[in-house]
Amino acid sequence: MPNTEYSKLKLLYLYHYFRTHVDSETIDGGTTMSQMLSYLNEKTGTEFERKSVYSDIARLNQFARSMGFCDESDDWITLEGKMYYRGQIEGDLTSDEAKLLVDAINASDFVDSGLTEKIKALYPAYFKKEYNSIVPHDGKMGQKTMMMINIIRSAIDDNLELSFEYGYQVASGIRGASLKSVSPLGLDFKNSHYYLYAIDNEYVKEVSRPRDAIKSYRLDRMRKATLGSPKKYIALKGDKAEILRNYAKDSIGAYTYKNNEDRFIQITLRSDDTKMLLKAFSEISEKLKTKLISDKFDKGEVKFGVKAALVPTFFQELFLISMYNGVTMTIDDEEVKKKYKEHLTKAESECR
C-alpha cells in the first residue's frame, strides 16, 4: 500500500463515511467491506487491504466509546453477517427529523429551498432514493431581503437601535416613506411576507410599558436601514419570547395605531347551513385569536370574542365574514357597530 498523503487520512475518511453514508435506523442502511474499500479508493486513490480497515474500525469503536457514542461495553460499528452498521449518535438528526426539515423547507416560502440540498448532502444515507414527499416551492430569498434581514439580526443580537424609512410598496418602489426609530425584538413570516416586531422608540413615550409600544413592520416596505447606538435601545421587560408569541397570535393587534387600544369584542354568527357557519368562523379564527363563548354549531349559532383595535384591518375581517352566504353577524358592542357602518358607508361612497 503506497504511503500517500491521502492514505494517511484513511481513518478520517472512514469515520466520515460511517457518519454520512450509513443509516443507523433502517435494516438496509448498512454497508459492506467492498463498499468501504471502494469509497476509500475513490477518495485517496489508494487500494487498501481489508486487514487495515478492520484495524481502523476497531480504533473508531475505541474512539466512539471514549466520546460516549455508545456504552463502554458496546461497539459503535457492528458486523452482522457481511453488513456493517453503526449506532445512532446523540445530537445527530434522525432520518425522520432530516426528512421533516426537508418537508418544512419545501412547504415554506420563508426558507430558501436550496437549503434542502445541504441537508441531503449532510445525510446522504437518508436520501439514497429520490425524496419528494412535498411539492417544493422553489422559493429564493432576494438579495435585498437577505441584506435587510442580516441588518435586523445584528440589531436584535446586539441590542441596537434600528433606523429606517418606512412607506408603501408600489410597482415603482416605496412611496410616502417616513423615518422610523425602533428597538428590534424579533422577525416573523406570515401571509407570504417578512415582518419585524419592534418597540416604536417614539410611541413608547406615550404608553406605560414598552410592550404596549410593540409594532410590526413589513420588510418590503422598509429601506435604508442603519444600525444605531445601544444607548437608544429600549429593552423589553419580562419573557420576550412569550410576549412576542402573544403579540403574534393576535394579528390585528399588530396593526394597532396610536390612540386605538385593543378591546374584547363579542361576535355571534348564525346560519342554517352548518358548513357555511364553520367556514365563516374559520375565516376569522385563522386571522385572529378567538375565545369561544358559546358552541352551538349544531343549532346554527356560535358566539366568540376577539381582542382587537378599531382599525381598518379589523373591519376588513368583519367584512370578509359578511360575504359568506346565509351567515348573519351580530356585534355586541355599539361603538364597534357604529365604526363598522362608517367604514362600509365610506367604502360605498368612494367606489366609482
Please sum up the structure shown.
The protein is α+β, with helices and mostly antiparallel strands. The protein folds into three domains: 7-86, Winged helix-like DNA-binding domain superfamily/Winged helix DNA-binding domain (Arc Repressor Mutant, subunit A); 143-248; 263-350, Alpha-Beta Plaits, CATH 3.30.70.
Low-confidence stretches: 252-259
Tell me about the biggest sheet? Answer: 5 strands, antiparallel
Query: How much of the sequence is in beta strands?
Result: 15-25%
Q: Rg from C-alpha positions? A: 29 Å
Morphology call: elongated
**H/E element string?**
HHHEEHHHEEEEEHEHEEHEH
End-to-end gap: 87 Å
Give the spatial strand order of the biggest sheet.
6-5-4-3-7
Q: On the 0-100 scale, what is the average pLDDT?
A: 84
The helix-and-strand class reads alpha+beta
Total separate domains: 3
Q: Helical residue percent? A: 25-40%
SS elements, strand count: 11
Keywords summarizing the entry:
352 residues, alpha+beta, Arc Repressor Mutant, subunit A, Alpha-Beta Plaits, 3 domains, 5-stranded antiparallel β-sheet, 11 strands
Would you spell out the secondary-structure blueprint of this structure?
Elements: H1 10-21, H2 33-44, H3 50-67, E1 77-80, E2 83-86, H4 95-107, H5 115-122, H6 143-158, E3 162-170, E4 173-190, E5 193-200, E6 214-218, E7 222-227, H7 240-249, E8 263-270, H8 274-285, E9 290-296, E10 301-308, H9 312-322, E11 328-331, H10 334-350
Antiparallel strand pairs: 1-2, 3-4, 3-7, 4-5, 5-6, 8-10, 8-11, 9-10
